[in-house]
From TrEMBL:
Protein name (record): SMI1/KNR4 family protein
InterPro entries: Knr4/Smi1-like_dom, Knr4/Smi1-like_sf, KNR4/SMI1_regulator
Entries under PANTHER family matching the protein: CELL WALL ASSEMBLY REGULATOR SMI1
Pfam families, per database record: SMI1_KNR4
Gene3D superfamilies, sorted: SMI1/KNR4-like (3.40.1580.10)
Length: 174
């Protein structure tokens, strides 16, 4: 069974077309953190992380913990103020289980396919870009501006904020 079929069998829906296009070029990355200190996920990694996120959220609910109360959402109605929501498809992850996801179940004022943040660090759900294409265009624009840091020891490249933070989420937030 191929990975795309496996995803459909596990979650009952296909991966978003925009993400399938990315995966056809790069089905993940070989070295951890090569995508601006994040991992660009392959299909099997997407399945694993999405499964863990959904199971974690369900475990919290089952024991009566409201994990959603820890989440900040500066755009109510655009992104759901949830720890995790079915319909969020992760495509990057850092070493702390946070990253970016394609939001296929946005709030009433959101857009299906928007790119959002997920995970505990930071526990903020916000739109980074209206689409996956615009997400990569945003990264390209930051690179063209020279908003990068290069670790002299490892050669790792990260995007940075004007204040010098190399956190990818912070560097892409509007």
């Amino acid at each position: 069974m191929d990975a795309l079929t496996h995803y459909r069998e596990v979650f009952g829906r296909a991966l978003p077309d925009s993400l399938v296009a990315v995966l056809s070029v790069a089905d993940g990355n070989d070295d951890e953190g090569d995508f601006f200190l994040h991992n660009l996920l392959g299909v099997e990694e997407i399945i694993a992380i999405q499964t863990v996120q959904e199971q974690t959220a369900e475990s919290f609910r089952r024991v009566g913990l409201d994990c959603d109360r820890w989440v900040r959402c500066p755009e109510p109605g655009v992104v759901s103020r949830k720890f995790w929501k079915p319909g969020w498809v992760p495509f990057t992850a850092d070493d702390g289980d946070s990253g970016f996801a394609v939001d296929m179940s946005p709030g009433p004022f959101g857009t299906s396919g928007q790119v959002i943040t997920y995970g505990p660090d930071p526990a903020v759900r916000t739109v980074i870009a209206p689409s996956l294409t615009e997400f990569f265009e945003l990264i390209s624009a930051r690179l063209e501006l020279g908003s990068v840091l290069v670790d002299p020891c490892t050669g790792a490249v990260s995007l940075c904020t004007p204040a010098g933070s190399s956190n990818l989420v912070e560097s892409l937030m509007r």
